[in-house]
Design a protein that fits this description.
- The protein is an alpha+beta fold.
- 27% of the residues lie in helices and 28% in strands.
- It is built from 16 helices and 32 strands.
- Strands 4, 8, 9, 10, 11, 12, 13, 22 and 25 form a nine-stranded mixed sheet that branches.
- The structure holds one RNA strand.
RNA sequence: CGGGGCGUAGCUCAGCUUGGUUAGAGCGUCUGCCUUGGGAGCAGAAGGUCGCAGGUUCGAAUCCUGUUGCUCCGACCA
């Protein structure tokens, strides 16, 4: 698909200033460059420039999905409540799902995702293992009534998303499909010119096997990831597993209770007792949906990873901060908690590294008192506690694969792949008849890419003070031809010739034929971020050459008239 | 859902504390002139029920109440 156009006809209202509400660079630039306009909170119109880029990203996605055997379908956005009730998610999804009723009072939802839709589609049509594996995908609007839409297209309520669903006869097949998608995703984001990492992710409530998030590295990103420079390990902060920290052996001293007036924080205790923070044990009290008290213990200088706690405590779905009463009921008080003497009603979970500490400081479960010389493996009741890796990774922790110090960075999650297993096929009774004559549910996988978010991430990662810097593959136009004075017929005619030649050569080219001053047009070009600008002026007319400016490097070059098309094509290959 | 901020022209904002002719500026838009290598200049013009509703007052953009929308922080987030 080739785009070409004259700027006088292009609807791209650029602004000198950006709206006050825009915070992220990408959001500001999309607004200023005339890419998007807001209709309401989290709801945006894509103007022609943005939509061209979106279409290019979607095309790249289509090519890579098709290359792996994916087939594109289109499914309803308006989805009947029945299938959501059948899967159990009508209740689970909560306020985030946009719901509506038709004139007969029947309930529907605007699809936040399409597992139910695709699974019910396939269950009625696929009966035999001979029809597997099957990979179907769709690119269309999804709806999530975000509590707090923000950052423009990064977190909106209506967004364009690609979702592919795989159906396999067994886990091996599912893993092959997963690997195919993992590879396809890597290619997609490479082709989009993004710097990204595929990070191990928690697939939480969805259950099942493995999951990777494809995260574009950007300081403004909402997710935090840990990665290793020595090996290829990368994981979201919530997922990153940690090894046990071995403490130096030392002579054990007997447990002792001491007074610590007003020392209700680790900082205060540490200073009052004059011990290093590594010798303290910190308690964090949570409760779950059933109002069970869950107390997590980590080293004083560590933080609790709530996701790991959730995964370690059977039956817990959500964690909330525990109230004082709940803590008091367990025979303790906030600021002075420890597993020693805590009532059995409390679920105690202790970080694996804490168990190796010796002669440490922990609360005494009464106001203004702590224990010293706590040695968990001796003093904690092993029968009543859960020991697990529950701490939050931080920069410098050893890589779980190779031991090198980990680095932390922030990123924008643009895609996620995960295996679903039988979760939906079982609930929705989507089965096939296998070779052995048995009825089995499909092994499924689900693979999403946020298209708008990918565009926003590309801008977030590629911009300078003047505006957007598009990678050629997803630029709305690859080349812009600018006659500095479009009122000069000679310049305009010459520019039009170059424009036509590039057009014929298959280049996405825009002719900026607006009768604006040169400065205005140059500013717009830089703001919108076309990879290459060709300038036509009295100077270039005289010399017979054309001047070319590369947006990313700011480099100027001169091409001989006869070589323009050839040289531009070559130059584009490098952008 | 809790806490803060904001809502005045297409955009960015001033005016509000201390109520008083016809509500302002810059940018943008339109017309004319001029200019054409980095948002230039001159002259003129259009454009606002001051978010909405109610109240106080002789009089409300300004004070009070309610409401709605946006926004930031927190909580939450397949």
């Amino acid at each position: 698909m080739i785009f070409f156009m004259k700027a006088t006809k292009l609807y791209a209202p650029t602004l000198r200033e950006s709206p006050a509400e825009a915070e992220l660079v990408s959001h500001k630039l999309m607004y200023r460059a005339g890419l998007i306009r807001k209709a309401a909170g989290g709801l945006y119109s894509y103007l022609p420039l943005a939509w061209r880029t979106m279409k290019k990203i979607m095309q790249i996605i289509r090519e890579e999905m098709d290359a792996k055997g994916g087939q594109e379908v289109m499914m309803p956005i308006v989805q009947p409540a029945e299938m959501w009730k059948e899967s159990g998610r009508w209740a689970v999804y909560g306020d985030e799902m946009m719901r509506l009723k038709d004139r007969h009072g029947r309930e529907f939802a605007l699809g936040p995702t399409h597992e139910e839709m695709i699974t019910t589609l396939v269950r009625d049509e696929v009966r035999s293992y001979k029809q597997l594996p099957l990979m179907l995908y769709q690119i269309q609007n999804k709806y999530r009534d975000e509590i707090r839409p923000r950052f423009g297209l990064m977190r909106s309520r209506e967004f364009v998303m690609k979702d592919l669903y795989s159906f396999d006869r067994d886990i091996d097949g599912m893993n092959i499909s997963y690997q195919k998608m993992y590879d396809a995703y890597s290619r997609i984001f490479e082709r989009c010119g993004l710097k990204f990492r595929a990070v191990e992710a928690d697939n939480g409530a969805i259950g099942g096997g493995h999951s990777h998030e494809f995260t574009v590295l950007a300081p403004s990103g909402e997710s935090s990831i840990a990665y290793c420079e020595k090996c290829d390990f990368a994981a979201s902060d919530e997922k990153a597993e940690l090894k046990i920290i071995h403490a130096e052996p030392e002579e054990l001293r007997p447990l002792e209770k001491v007074l610590t007036p007003d020392c209700h924080t680790i900082e205060l205790v540490k200073n009052f007792l004059n011990v290093p923070i590594e010798k303290t044990i910190k308690a964090v009290a949570f409760m779950d949906d059933d109002e069970r008290l869950i107390v997590a213990f980590v080293r004083g200088d560590h933080d609790v990873n709530e996701i790991k706690v959730l995964n370690a405590v059977e039956g817990a779905n959500h964690l909330y901060m525990a109230g004082e009463k709940l803590i008091a009921d367990a025979n303790s008080c906030a600021g002075f908690m420890s597993p020693i003497g805590l009532k059995d009603s409390a679920i105690v979970i202790v970080d694996q590294s804490v168990m190796l500490m010796s002669n440490a400081v922990a609360g005494a479960n009464e106001v203004d008192a702590h224990f010293i010389n706590v040695t968990p493996r001796r003093d904690f009741d092993a029968e009543k506690i859960i020991v697990a890796d529950i701490r939050m990774v931080r920069a410098g922790d050893p890589c779980p694969h190779c031991g090198a110090p980990l680095k932390m960075t922030r990123g924008i999650e643009v895609g996620q792949v995960f295996t679903l297993g039988k979760k939906y096929s079982e609930k929705l009774h989507a089965t096939f008849l296998d070779e052995d004559g048995k009825v089995k549910p499909f092994e499924m996988g689900c693979y999403g890419i946020g298209v708008g978010r990918t565009m926003a991430a590309a801008i977030e990662q590629n911009n300078d003070k003047d505006g957007i810097i598009w990678t050629r593959a997803i630029a709305p136009f690859e080349v812009v031809v600018v006659p500095v004075n479009a009122k000069d017929d000679k310049q305009l005619a010459f520019a039009e010739k170059i424009y036509n030649e590039l057009k014929s050569a298959g280049v996405d080219v825009l002719l900026d034929d607006r009768k604006e001053r040169a400065g205005v047009k140059f500013k717009d070009c830089d703001l919108i971020g076309y990879p290459i600008r060709i300038t036509i002026s009295p100077k270039t007319l005289e010399s017979g050459n054309v001047e070319v400016k590369v947006r990313r490097s700011g480099e100027f070059m001169n091409f001989a008239r006869a070589d323009v098309v050839k040289n531009i094509l070559e130059l584009l290959e490098t952008l």
